[in-house]
Task: inverse folding
C-alpha cells in the first residue's frame, strides 16, 4: 500500500499508476484505445524526481486578471501536468492499494475524503488519477478548490492529514491485514534542529532535510528507529 497527501499524493500516484500507452495518435488525453501493464509502474522514483526538477515551473500558472479575491495560481498548469503523465487512468487500475487524502468542502462542511484503490475496485467511488491529484493538491490561497461533479468540492488533503500514515494503517486493518505483518515506512520533510534551544537560523542551518522513519508495529506496540 502507498499513501500520500498533496505533493506526496503525486509521488504515491506515480509509483502505483501502471505503464500505459495510447493508440489514438490524435491526442493521448482523449484516446479511444488504451493498453496498460498489470505489472510495471509507469514511473520510477528517479523519474518522479526528474519531473519535479524539470517541470515544476509549469505547475504554477498565473492569470493576468488575478485579484485578491482569487487564488494565486490557476488550475491550468497542474491539470496539464497531471493529464500528460496520468492520462485517463482510473484508481481501480493502480498496481497496489492506494490512499490519497483530500478535504471535501461541499456545503462548507469540511470532511476528510480518502481516494482509494479499494473503493475504486469495489465500484463504490472510482476516480481518475487526475481527479484525485487535482483534489489533494488544491491548496487554499494557492489554487482554487477542485470540483468533481456529483462527488464534491475538494481542498488539499494536508489540511486534515498532513501525514497519511495512520489513515493507511487503518485501511490495512479494514482490509484484514494482520497487525503483526504491517510495517510503515514514512517519508516527510521538516527542519532539523540539533539543539531544540537553538533556532536553525542561529546555526546557519535553514535547509529542509528529508527525514525517514521506519515504524515496526507488533501487537499494538510501535518501535521508532531513525534511518
Result:
Amino acid at each position: 500500500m502507498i499513501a500520500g497527501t498533496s505533493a506526496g499524493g503525486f509521488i504515491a500516484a506515480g509509483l502505483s499508476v501502471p505503464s500505459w500507452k495510447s493508440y489514438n495518435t490524435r491526442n493521448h488525453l482523449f484516446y479511444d484505445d488504451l493498453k496498460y501493464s498489470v505489472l510495471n509502474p509507469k514511473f520510477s522514483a528517479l523519474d518522479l524526481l526528474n519531473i519535479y526538477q524539470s517541470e515544476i515551473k509549469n505547475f504554477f500558472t498565473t492569470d493576468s486578471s488575478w485579484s485578491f479575491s482569487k487564488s494565486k495560481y490557476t488550475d491550468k498548469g497542474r491539470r496539464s501536468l497531471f493529464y500528460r503523465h496520468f492520462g485517463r487512468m482510473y484508481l481501480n487500475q493502480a498496481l497496489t492499494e492506494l490512499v490519497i487524502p483530500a478535504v471535501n468542502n461541499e456545503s462548507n462542511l469540511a470532511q476528510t475524503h480518502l481516494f482509494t484503490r479499494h473503493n475504486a475496485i469495489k465500484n463504490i467511488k472510482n476516480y481518475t488519477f487526475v481527479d484525485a491529484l487535482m483534489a489533494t493538491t488544491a491548496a487554499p490561497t494557492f489554487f482554487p478548490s477542485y470540483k468533481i461533479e456529483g462527488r464534491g468540492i475538494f481542498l488539499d488533503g494536508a489540511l486534515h492529514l498532513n501525514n497519511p500514515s495512520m489513515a493507511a494503517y487503518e485501511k490495512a486493518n479494514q482490509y484484514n491485514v494482520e497487525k503483526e505483518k504491517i510495517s510503515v515506512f514514512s517519508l516527510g520533510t521538516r527542519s532539523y534542529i540539533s539543539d531544540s534551544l537553538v533556532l536553525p537560523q542561529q546555526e546557519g542551518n535553514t535547509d529542509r532535510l528529508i527525514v525517514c522513519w521506519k515504524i515496526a508495529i507488533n501487537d499494538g506496540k510501535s518501535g521508532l528507529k531513525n534511518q
Residues 27-33, 199-227 have pLDDT under 50 and may be disordered.
